[in-house]
Amino acid sequence: MSNPWIGRCLCGAVQYEARSASLAQLICYCRDCQRASGPAGLPVVVASAADFSFKGEIKSYTKIGGSEIPTTRNFCPHCGSLLFGTPHHAPEIVTIYAGTLDDPSRFKAESVQFMSERHQLDVHQPEAPQHLGRAP
């Protein structure tokens, strides 16, 4: 692939690369993704595990989700950035958390999952003042 998916954690201690086209791009609203990442919905790039590599030390946390199937989330032990997941139900894929991409503008959601768990945090309030930079 001439345009790999490349990203890193906040402190730069961990970098990753997926060398093939994405298998899917989606937003997940499951409660586990909400709790793990903070936002109401987590943008995810699904990539082939065979074409994925990372450099640096990671820590992992595995939890059985609502589907009763474990998922492992991998993060930087230095800055805490959530980087990618390795779902046990599909060991052939890696789920890259799109906010850590070097070029997040490439992310284009093709679908949304767990809409039943989406909540008010995801509703942007148009009447609230908008700022291009930090709010005063």
Describe this structure in words.
This protein has 136 residues and is mainly beta. The protein has one domain (5-116): Metal Binding Protein, Guanine Nucleotide Exchange Factor, Chain A. The chain is built from 1 helix and 10 strands. The mean pLDDT is 89. This is GFA family protein. It comes from Paraburkholderia rhynchosiae.
What's the arrangement of secondary structure elements?
Elements: E1 5-8, E2 15-18, E3 24-28, H1 31-37, E4 42-48, E5 52-55, E6 59-64, E7 70-75, E8 82-87, E9 93-97, E10 111-113
Parallel strand pairs: 3-10
Antiparallel strand pairs: 1-2, 2-5, 3-4, 4-9, 6-7, 7-8, 8-9
Summarize the structure.
The chain is mostly beta strands and 136 residues long.
- Number of folding domains? 1
Strand order of the largest sheet: 6-7-8-9-4-3-10
CATH architecture: Beta Complex
Q: Biggest β-sheet, characterized?
A: 7 strands, mixed
- Estimated helix fraction: under 10%
Shape: globular
**Tally of helical runs:** 1
Given as residue ranges, the uncertain stretches (5+ residues, pLDDT < 50) are: none
Beta-strand fraction estimate: 35-45%
CATH class category label: Mainly Beta
Q: What value does the Rg take, in angstroms?
A: 15 Å
Q: Classify the secondary structure makeup into a structural class.
A: mainly beta
Span of the ends, CA to CA: 43 Å
Q: How many β-strand runs?
A: 10
Average of per-residue pLDDT values: 89
Helix-strand topology string: EEEHEEEEEEE
Protein name: GFA family protein
Task: Spell out the key features of this protein.
136 residues, mainly beta, Metal Binding Protein, Guanine Nucleotide Exchange Factor, Chain A, seven-stranded mixed β-sheet, three-stranded antiparallel β-sheet, 1 helix, 10 strands, 5% helix, GFA family protein
